[in-house]
What does this fold into?
Amino acid sequence: MKSLRVGILQLSKTPDITENQNRLAEEIRRLVKAEKPQLIVNQELHDSLYFCQTESVDCCNLASPIPSDTTDFYSALAKELDVVIVTSLFERRAAGLYHNTAVVFERDGSIAGIYRKMHIPDDPAYYEKFYFTPGDIGFEPIDTSVGRLGVLVCWDQWYPEAARIMALRGAQLLIYPTAIGWESTDSPEEKSRQLGAWTIVQRAHAVANGLPVITVNRVGHEPDPSGATNGITFWGNSFVAGPQGELLYQAPADTEAVAAVDIDMERSEQVRRWWPFLRDRRIDAYSPIVKRYLD
It folds into this structure.
């Protein structure tokens, strides 16, 4: 495939799961009708509000097994529209055992593969360790009719090791469904630093691996149900970068965005010829990287 058209959906959410699913489906239908994307990428945990702002066992009721009515919904949508869809779901694997899981649906509605989020944060308003067991299926790309997708999730985006392993296993794209934003007490300068670092680190993954990167974030303010904080203002800025880190598209910080972006899938080959980082890796000298810290 020489060119791939990717659809991205940066949306705000409500407490109503059915409403969120139906709206998302309608936005995808409109996008496919107007722009004919072959791949759709959604934001992290798109069926609900970002419930990890608090620690509540009741929120575990939001989780669904794979397969379930939830996966059936997105399976039918992928088949209806003849597109590959990357979703981000709260997976119930067993009683008391849950994952933050990306599920990729093939054009015929089948599940092409899943990725369970490996790096789990535990920060104020991002209490994900309370809910999610770290992934146990590793960094394995998912083969689809539009290419081999290196799907990772949010906090994974800060780790170059995750992107590198996906690249070494033949991923043709790096994809990050995301939920990240600002706390109201952060200064404007700190907000700027956080957003800049978030963008830079992912564009660096594109450069270091010679691969396009697709990042789709939430947008809008979501209150903290506990009242302990002023909630999170998700900073949007979903973007697509080429294999030299060049920005092909960037969404606004404060409004919803639905867009289609064309990616030259042959460009990575040429970029890796110009910048042969994989060729020049000193794999004989990298064993210390598997240590937690080198005292």
The longest helix spans residues 188-209.
